[in-house]
Amino acid sequence: MKKLPLFLAALTLTSSAYSQVEDDGREVVALNTPSDLAPHIEAPAEPSVCPEGKVCIPEDDMAAIVQVLQERQCLLQTPPEFDVGSVTIVVDEGGRVFYTGDGPESPYTLGMTWCHFKVRAEGKVKVLAAIKEPPVFGFRFRPKAYMGYALLTPFFDNNSFDSGIDAGIMLDFLHYKYVNLNAAVGFRTFGAGVGVDITQNFGLYAGYGMSWAAVLDPRRQPLHNLVLGVDFAF
Questions:
Q1: Are residues 151 and 202 in the same domain?
Q2: Is the dihedral of CA 94, 95, 99, 105 positive or negative?
Q3: Are 146 and 228 in the same domain?
Q4: Rg (CA), the chain
Q5: In a domain, 71, yes or no
Q6: Which of 49, 112, 140, 191 could form a disulfide with 209 if both were Cys (CB 3.0 to 4.6 A apart)?
């Protein structure tokens, strides 16, 4: 009769032990069957199965596809921007060519920005200048200023040297290379003569001149004169 109470006490202690909380705060898992005495091991997760009739894409691949679509949308809706370097070309009348955009310090550049694309290129500028050559022979309108001396005037004007000095304007109306024909009008004489270009704007002149004083007063001499001088083209 004493064994029955001992068995019931042991059974009561055993069942209550699995529901107590340990001193460190962890709850003891209740074991209902003997097989629960084995260590608790979680089974590996099974791979997701794509439902039938559906298309399943991994997240990494989907992110790449979305990025490509966004880039394509940007290319279709956003025009490219170009940044073109400046080139300055100067050609003077002498045929000399000056330009920028060719040196290593300032090369010719071309830049393009289009969405996520950025391109920059550098290049060398080659300049080919076609300069129109002036005609060798022909008529033209080329005004000049001249200073000259009427050689015969001093001999008929009391041997005064100053009386032969003349200055005025002339017109170069016909030329062949560096030789030209001119009509001249000065404050002492007027006439025509031949000029020779020494530079583009400077030349020598020799020609016939008729005295204004002799025209206004026929008694004064000389009527005809030889004028030598220099001319300056405008």
A1: yes
A2: negative
A3: yes
A4: 56
A5: no
A6: 191
Look at residues 63, 92, 123 and tell me which one is the last residue of a structural domain. 123
Confirm whether 70 is domain-assigned: no
- Amino acid occupying residue 22: E
CA distances from 175 to 95, 131, 205 (A): 21, 21, 13
Look at the chain and report how many structural domains it folds into. Answer: 2
- Show the tokens assigned to 74: 């940007």
Q: Print the domain residue range for 169.
A: 137-233
Q: Is residue 64 part of a domain?
A: no
Closest CA to 226 of 175, 184, 180, 169: 184
Is residue 63 domain-resident? no
CB-CB contact of 173 with 196 (8 Å): no
pTM above 0.85, yes or no: no
CB atoms < 10 A from the CB of 180, how many? 24
Read off the pLDDT band of 170 (50, 70, 90).
Answer: very high
One domain for residues 106 and 148 = no
Is residue 148 helix, strand or coil? strand
pLDDT tens track for 109-151? 888 999 988 998 887 777 777 777 778 999 999 999 999 999 9
In the structure encoding, which two tokens stand for residue 49, read together?
């199965």
CA distance 31 to 116: 62
